[in-house]
Amino acid sequence: MNLGTPESMELVLTVIEMAARDTNLYTFKRPDGGALPGASPGAHVGVILPNGIERQYSLVRAAPELSEYTVGVKRDANSRGGSVFMHDQLKVGSKVTILPPRNNFPLKEDAAHSVLVAGGIGITPIYCMVQRLIALGRPWELYYSCRSRMDTAFLQELSKHPSAHFHFDDEEGGKFLQVASIVEKLPKHAHLYCCGPAPMLAGFEAATVHWPSEQIHVEYFTPKFAAAQEGGFVVELARSKRELTVPPGKSILQMVREAGIQVPHSCEEGVCGACETRVISGTPDHRDTILTEQERKDSATMMICCSGSKTPRLVLDI
């Protein structure tokens, strides 16, 4: 995991391209056209909009050296406002603050076989992986589910490949993709990836519960667990030589910031990994969607935006 402080960049929106119904691709570049930090497949960037809303969006293209970042955004009127602002307010020429790529959903490039499951806008990091696997000449299968063909981004490009399989709910009598039936037929040496809506992710995790954890890769766009709000514990900040009492209804991150201490953070929901902090002692109450089960058991780090403490005292490397 990367515990470094991300450096924000002011980029310019250069292209808006329609990818599917209510889904646009947004491309950002430096004003001077200079190079941007590279990214690996599955990475996302933080987007801080002019209205102050901050969101994380997966990159559609990745490479060690990049001159632009392209993200896919589906307009969702029921969301918290980020996608609506991007669709309704951003114009070519708009300046937007971008946090450099982070990757909590990396592709194992040397896997003998890769199986990718995507739902809706969850195709964005998956499509990036497909491009890389094609470039490497590695075997892969894609199972991509959308409500209809009109909602399917990259349909034309992906349809060229026999290993890409599509499921359209409206053409299947409203039935959803049966992830379990896909998983049960897969070779046991395969690495499996899933990104999509919460019901699909829950079905995928249930279907792969007996698979080796190192072969299962999941990306959440929204929190999987409710944030810890119980409070009632003390956080010792080892480097700052401070002690903070976390009251009910507050997060560790909020208390640290209120104490005037600046730490990396972004989503504040446990889905981006920006606030990952080293744990010196104590037992965290993990509520993020980043750490693996083994990492949760080890508790070497925690996400302080959403996780709490199971012990009366936590000592953190802050």
Termini separation comes to 16 Å
Q: Which second-level CATH architecture of the largest domain applies?
A: 3-Layer(aba) Sandwich
- Count of structural domains: 3
What is the fourth-level CATH superfamily of the largest domain? Nucleotide-binding domain of ferredoxin-NADP reductase (FNR) module
Integer average pLDDT: 94
Shape: globular
Explain this structure.
- The structure is a single chain.
- It is built from seven helices and 20 strands.
- It has a six-stranded antiparallel β-sheet with strand order 5-4-8-1-2-7, covered by helices on one side.
- It has three domains: 9-102, Beta Barrel (Elongation Factor Tu (Ef-tu), domain 3), CATH 2.40.30; 114-219, Rossmann fold (3-Layer(aba) Sandwich); 233-316, Roll (Ubiquitin-like (UB roll)).
- It has 318 residues and is an alpha/beta fold.
- Helix 3 (155-158) links the parallel strand 10 (140-146) and strand 11.
- The protein has helices spanning 82-88, 123-136, 155-158, 179-183, 198-207, 252-258, 293-298; strands at residues 9-20, 23-29, 36-37, 44-48, 54-58, 65-66, 69-74, 95-102, 114-119, 140-146, 164-168, 191-195, 216-219, 233-237, 242-246, 276-281, 284-285, 301-303, 308-309, 313-316.
- The chain starts with 8 loop residues before the first strand and ends with a strand.
